[in-house]
Design brief:
By secondary structure, the chain is an alpha/beta fold. It has helices spanning about 15-25, 40-45, 55-60, 80-90, 110-115, 135-145, and strands at about 5-10, 30-35, 65-70, 90-100, 120-125, 155, 160-165, 170-175, 185, 190-200, 200-205, 210-215, 220, 225-230, 235-245, 255.
Amino acid sequence: MKKEYIVISGGFDPIHSGHINLIQDASKIANVIAIVNNNNFLINKKGFIFLDQNERIKILSSIIGVDETFLSIDNDHTVINSLKKLINSGRNIKYFGNGGDRMTKDDIPETEICKKNNIELIFNLGGQKSQSSSSLALSLYDQLQKKNSESNYVEKPWGFYKTFISEDEYLLKKIYINPGEELSEQSHNHRDEHWIIVSGKVTVLSDKKMQEKEKNDHIFISRNTKHKIINHQDEPAVIIEVQTGVILSEDDIIRYNDKYKRS
């Protein structure tokens, strides 16, 4: 009989007790293949790596219950292409396992490829979400590598944004919109956004409704909702944005209309 596999994935940076519980639970179902997020994935997601990808693979390979490791080949915040590669290799992938931080199919961008290949989604492996790798590494990382304050500053044709906090499932940034400028009409597949106007006045287009917002107003933008911000005023507008979701990436932007002709 052909060997059956369950695929799990993660950064494992560093590995902690929650990962061990995940692996133990997965190994009771089938042989475990662990997809390890590459260095670029982690840098884009949380801004740093604690352990190099090769070191993480070596550690995982030595853990009882892990049959194979696979370094992610994906360039976005999913493991879809890695999963495709494993499927096309001829391995009998029967399950895709998820830890306590992923509770429904809506949380999993790999749902479609799993459905297409008759791969069953397994939830709540390892029990409830434990302390994240990011929080474990963050204190030491801050001591070892203080970021240049300008490294989180990104210029845009409409102004700039600056990221202050980027954790596993939330991100905090400041958005500065120059007078007479606007952000593109866009939506996001994997995140919700909360905006608080802290300076100026803006026009917000959300779900085909136009609203005027000013200082201290709050706007909630749910995932998959088309939205746009316009600053018609003669003074800058400043917005504090909080993003929440499993995937928080600048790649998760679908543009519909853009004054600056970006794709």
